[in-house]
Design a protein that fits this description.
It is a single chain. With 165 residues, the protein is of the alpha+beta class. The protein has helices at residues 4-11, 26-44, 51-77, 104-113, 116-121; strands spanning 18-21, 82-85, 90-91, 93-99, 130-136, 143-151, 154-164. The protein has two domains: 26-77; 90-164, no CATH class. The protein has a four-stranded antiparallel β-sheet with strand order 4-5-6-7, with helices on both faces. Helix 2 runs antiparallel to helix 3 (51-77). The longest helix has 27 residues, at 51-77.
């Protein structure tokens, strides 16, 4: 889902509380390096009589190396930016929840109040008639909510983005 509106509202907060950043590449690079280490261990240390261990190390090594290389390449070629919460020095977590249209009024009231317990008590659905998108700081000091409804093959924002501090 395109969460452009909620991201723009977060970036507009005063004092640079939330800034847009690219996801780092060091974590997938660690996976790729771990894959290389497993492949080297397989070649150097493992005896040819231990076929099962050799195959396990080879499969894990190739899998980790492939994952790391693909994710690093995607992050380097992409211009995707995500919200970064500067006080906690962490990226904000993104969640989507789906609801039936019959819960729209109740959901709007709970989102307007920023009442997380009321939002959690509303029954979710498997159909994305109404979608609640939220970004949350890892320390729960900041949360942003946006309600979308699915109309004419696209998601349209319902009301305004709500930010709870």
């Amino acid at each position: 889902m395109n969460a452009f509106e909620i991201c723009e509202a977060l970036y507009a907060l005063p004092g640079g509380v939330v800034v847009e950043r690219r996801r780092p590449i060091f974590k997938p690079m660690i996976f790729a390096l771990l894959g290389v280490v497993l492949l080297v261990v397989n070649i150097v240390v493992v005896d040819s009589s231990m076929e099962t261990l050799s195959m396990l190390l080879m499969v894990l090594g190739v899998g980790l190396l492939g994952y790391g290389v693909v994710v690093v390449a995607m992050r380097l070629m992409s211009d995707e930016h995500v919200p970064y919460h500067t006080p906690s020095k962490r990226y904000m977590s993104y969640t989507e929840s789906y609801y039936d249209r019959s819960h729209l009024a109740e959901l709007q009231r709970a989102v307007a109040r920023g009442d997380e317990s009321a939002i959690a008590s509303i029954e979710t659905s498997n159909v994305a008639a109404i979608t609640l998108v939220s970004y949350r700081a890892t320390d729960n000091s900041l949360a942003a909510y946006a309600l979308y409804h699915y109309v004419d093959m696209e998601y349209c924002l319902i009301g305004e983005v709500t930010i709870r501090r």
